[in-house]
Amino acid sequence: MQAERTKEKTAPKRAEDLKAGGFIPQRQKGKITVRCKAPGGRVTSERLERIAAVARKYGQGIVHLSVRMSPEILYVNLEDLDAVVAELAEVGQEIASCGKRFRVTTGCGGCEYNPNGWTDTQRLAQAATERFFGQDTPHKFKTCFTGCAIDCMRAREMDLGFQGMVEPALLAENCTGCTLCVKACQDDALRMGDDELPVRDLDNCISCGDCVKVCAFDAMVPARIGHAVYVGGKHGKHPHVAYPVAQFVPDELVFDVMRVTIAWYREHGKKGERIGDTIDRVGIESYRRALRNVVGDELLLTDADLKKPRWRSIFYRGLAAAFPAYGDVEEGEQGNGTRA
Amino acid sequence: MNWVKTKLVLEGMEPGERLEVLLDDGEAIQGVPRSVRAEGHRVLQVTPLEGGFRLLVERAASEHE
Questions:
Q1: pLDDT for A100-124, tens place per residue?
Q2: CATH fold label, A2-89
Q3: Minimum mean pLDDT among A219-223, A256-260, A276-280, A328-332: which range?
Q4: First-last CA distance in chain A
Q5: Does B53 touch chain A (CB under 8 A)?
Q6: CB–CB contacts below 8 A, A to B
Q7: Set of chain B residues whose Cβ sits within 8 Å of the Cβ of A176
Q8: Partner residue opposite A180 with nearest CB, options B33, B36, B38
Q9: DSSP string covering A43-89, please?
Q10: Where are the domains of chain A?
């Protein structure tokens, strides 16, 4: 009786339906990969142990950590999917998704536990996923929170990426003129002024905060911390680097930015078209107008901003056009043709 | 390695004792002042030198004493 009822519930499903639910058909007939949800790549020991147990019981005891930080249980039989879901659900372990929808948000350590992080990427990745996960969009919609200029989460490859940035300020009364900050800056954005205090070049400063981190006297301090916003990035067969569209967006506006971006995408995007391609097709002004309603003129990046060294150095769209042509290999430089 | 060495020396000192640390330009200057302070010690002075810096550090009181 039990076996028959199970078969009824798991009658052959369309691959598309399966994938919407985070179940990915494998090469092997009847085998499914189960994608587990781990916003920010964060998993409790309890859930990890249950994932391992389920993998052992229903799969082959193998878990793959996906590029978007999801533990994926391999080699699950189609007829066991309901049981797998139920046993994972017992410890609150949910299933992620594939397909044309908001995906699980990824995130680095951020300021919660990484000394370099400026923004609380873990908290935001959890909250964003809770709020937006599974919402249908014209095509897949990938988001991330990355905590600083180092950008471990590749914000510029996201449909919508958020990157921590800090605006330093000088408390002159604490400054000893030691020049550590000037030396620490890798972007030529600090020099010692005539009064033996550091002076910042706003066009060069990339808001990485290295000067703040290095200051031993609490003289260089964070005046403002927020997120740079990038839209329209993707990798895949036709990679597209994201457009930087806003800066210093505070935590409180992050969900409004996500909401308005998803709404714009739904209004303008064709089915199967990533938002970067939508922007290229309809023009970025339409998107910027929508974003401006949320972040205002002060945070919206303009053409003048993008021409500054600071944004040119971190915005490499169009660089391919400037790549030097590969020349011919000169005589005598070729190898002897033997392979390792 | 700079911080590891510095930390070990500091640990072996008495609270209030001072340590002079010489650092080369580059990675060391990013990490050491910050780590020193995170560990609870005080940076009294930072002096630029040719190709580096001199830190004067005061060893903090031990937490576990």
A1: 999 999 999 999 999 999 999 999 9
A2: Sulfite Reductase Hemoprotein; domain 2 (3.90.480)
A3: A328-332
A4: 60
A5: yes
A6: 37
A7: 45-46
A8: B33
A9: --HHHHHHHHHHHHHHS-S-EEE-TTS-EEEEEEEGGGHHHHHHHHH
A10: 2-89, 106-179+223-317
